[in-house]
Amino acid sequence: MSFLDILAQPDTWQLVGVLCLGIFVQAAAGFAGGLVIVPLLLWAGYSIPEAQTSLLVATIPQNLWGVVSFRDALDSKRMVWPGAARLLFLPLGVLTLQWMESFSMVTLRQIVGVAVLLATLATILFRPKPRDQVAPFWSYLVFPLSGFLQGLVGMGGPPMVLWVQAHDWDTRRMRGFLFSMYLISLAPGIAVLVWFFGSRVIPPALIAAAAIPILLAVTWVGLKVGTALGTQRLRRITMALLLLMGLAGLAAPWLSPA
């Protein structure tokens, strides 16, 4: 099947639509792109590796833009351990995912639903007091966990977001750090997924790459909407959406067709 044949299929535009929604949420609310995209693509019939690969490709422009925009706020020395820890534990997550593929799609939807619920509840309930330094223990826990979760379900962002919020950094430094962590793991993440799961993850990646002009336009709209509605209002809407998606994942045995 040629790439033009792939583009002509309805499932292709379903994938593009989900990517647009996740990128819009990420641009408007500042987080949760992966938490939206991965579970929705599972409900659309894609596997977790396919969802992850398309997500990683779709976020390349946004993360490049973020690193370039906030480069003056970056501390390269502070990114060595976090970036290395994420990369070291990412293959372990993918290896676990390969084992999990023997599970039924219903069970996988439940697992992803639990991951979305835990990440959302942690974001809602965890309110660290910002400080200049955080105990090293948390770094040793957060970044390996982030890499593992990135490889497992494509949701490595929440632990890092909570870690960043525990620091008294300004917004530019926070966003620059997060964009850098995401960017560092993009190429290795795609490579590991292709290595473990082969050619079946290539079509979603190519579709995501072809959709990048559309996703850039969606990013621009999301930034405008985020500015107009305000961060707190969007945060509440996003959290409600994520809780609903997490609960839907848990209820997969009753919501999935027989």
Low-confidence stretches: none
Q: How many helices?
A: 14
Radius of gyration: 18 Å
Number of domains: 1
Helicity, as a percent range: over 70%
Gross geometry: globular
The computed structural class is mainly alpha
Strand content: under 5%
- Say how many strands there are: 0
Largest sheet features:
none
* Overall average residue pLDDT: 85
What order do the helices and strands follow? HHHHHHHHHHHHHH
Distance between the termini: 30 Å
Task: Give the assembly state of these chains.
Answer: single chain
List keywords for this structure.
globular; 258 residues; 0% strand; mainly alpha; transport; transmembrane helix
Describe this structure in words.
By secondary structure, the protein is an all-alpha fold. The protein has helices spanning 3-7, 10-29, 33-43, 48-58, 60-69, 80-100, 105-125, 136-153, 157-165, 171-197, 202-210, 212-229, 231-250, 252-255. The mean pLDDT is 85. Helices cover 79% and strands 0% of the residues. The protein is globular and about 50 Å long. Helix 4 packs across helix 10 (171-197), helix 7 runs antiparallel to helix 13 (231-250) and helix 9 runs antiparallel to helix 10 (171-197). The two termini are 30 Å apart. It has one domain (3-252).
Explain the layout of strands and helices.
Layout: H1 3-7, H2 10-29, H3 33-43, H4 48-58, H5 60-69, H6 80-100, H7 105-125, H8 136-153, H9 157-165, H10 171-197, H11 202-210, H12 212-229, H13 231-250, H14 252-255
Helix pairs in contact: 2-3, 2-12, 3-4, 3-7, 3-13, 4-10, 4-11, 5-10, 6-8, 6-10, 7-9, 7-13, 8-9, 9-10
